[in-house]
Design goal:
The chain is of the alpha/beta class. The chain is elongated and about 80 Å long. A hairpin with a 2-residue loop joins strand 2 and strand 3. It contains 12 helices and 11 strands. The longest helix has 22 residues. The strands form 3 sheets. Strands 2-3-9-5-8-4 form a 6-stranded mixed β-sheet.
């Protein structure tokens, strides 16, 4: 097989940018995992089976990978470089190239190819290196996985109208991205209070799963946020932060005390339900989702603060319903009809 390439070089490593068909990529490649293999270039991690299945379905449904797979050809006798014509000849045989980046994509392609041989001729971008040492492979792997900052997984949700992925439910990814922002941003009232897997145990706080489930009616496709034109990740995070900062304003220093019900799942869920039913339409009518707008819609005093003791002994659902009813009593907004929302 003769393959044309574009030559690249960095830190003494020669790279050969080219394209290969799916069949060739699957046939020549394999994964050398650290901790399992003693051979040079063994840097890869254990495969995630659910990712492989998802990628396989993606390929079979016409999906494409515009970013390159990196292959380290370790059987150097199988490749001959023709620098004059910027091409190389490749003797195709099994296990001649380690996958340095893209192991899940290749595994997904392999699974898809077993199910539908017609995808064999689809070509994908490949970056070829030849005979790299483990140290060189590790440097490339670290660069890809640590130095390159990833974007939020749900970013595609902001762009779905421009793609063919509008039927996919990104609400879980979006909820997690919002949770990450609210758990880490300095001006967030929930900083450090959203319990991600593996986080330190402490009393109070909201499990990530509870947080995401509460947000799904807001962030799903054609959900409440979209209804009120709150569509980007940044805007959605800001609206939630403004709302809960307004609640925090009335609680002041008591916000971070265990007496605050909004630091627990039932209170958070109740607050989200009030946001859905009362505050979003109110703010939309005012054309403002600012902190001041939310603050003006809330009617609290030191004597009317809701407390966790108010729901002591109640089940989660009963506690949520009680806190919802009580919070509604402290919301000072006029009833707004759908027709009044149009502008």
């Amino acid at each position: 097989m003769n393959i044309e390439y574009i030559p690249l070089e960095h830190k003494g490593i020669r790279y050969y940018l080219c394209s290969m068909d799916c069949q060739t990529i699957v046939e020549i490649s394999y994964v050398a995992r650290r901790g399992e293999s003693e051979e040079q270039g063994a840097v890869q991690r254990i495969l995630n089976k659910s990712r492989i299945s998802n990628i396989s379905d993606y390929v079979l449904n016409g999906g494409y990978f515009p970013t390159n797979i990196i292959l380290n050809v370790i059987d150097i006798d199988k490749i001959q470089i023709d620098e004059k014509n910027k091409s190389f000849s490749l003797t195709v045989s099994e296990r001649i190239a380690q996958v340095l980046d893209g192991q899940h994509r290749v595994a997904g392609m392999r699974d898809a190819l077993r199910k539908d041989g017609s995808i064999a001729s689809i070509r994908y971008p490949v970056l070829v290196v030849i005979g790299l040492t483990t140290e060189q492979c590790a440097e490339i792997f670290v660069s890809i996985n640590t130095e390159q900052k990833t974007v939020p997984k749900s970013l595609i949700y902001d762009l779905y109208g421009l793609t063919n992925t509008s039927n996919y439910d990104y609400s879980i990814e979006r909820g997690r991205d919002i949770a990450f922002g609210l758990n880490n941003e300095e001006d967030s009232p929930y900083r450090g209070y959203i319990k991600f897997p593996g986080s330190t145990r402490f009393k109070g706080g909201i499990q990530l799963s509870s947080f995401v489930n509460a947000l799904r009616p807001l962030v799903k496709s054609h959900g409440e946020f979209e209804k009120y034109q709150i569509q980007t990740l940044e805007f959605q995070t800001k609206v939630l932060k403004n709302y809960f900062n307004a609640l925090e304003y009335y609680y002041d220093k008591k916000w971070y005390e265990l007496s605050n019900p909004f630091l627990f799942a039932s209170g958070f869920n109740a607050a989200i339900d009030v946001l859905l039913s009362k505050l979003l339409p109110f703010c939309f009518s005012k054309k403002s989702f600012s902190f001041d707008t939310f603050k003006s819609a809330l009617n609290f005093s030191k004597d009317t603060l809701l407390k966790q003791n108010d729901v002591k002994g109640m089940s989660g659902e009963t506690a949520k319903n009680y806190l919802y009813d009580e919070l509604v009593k402290r919301v000072n907004v006029e009833t707004i009809t759908e027709t009044e929302l149009e502008f």
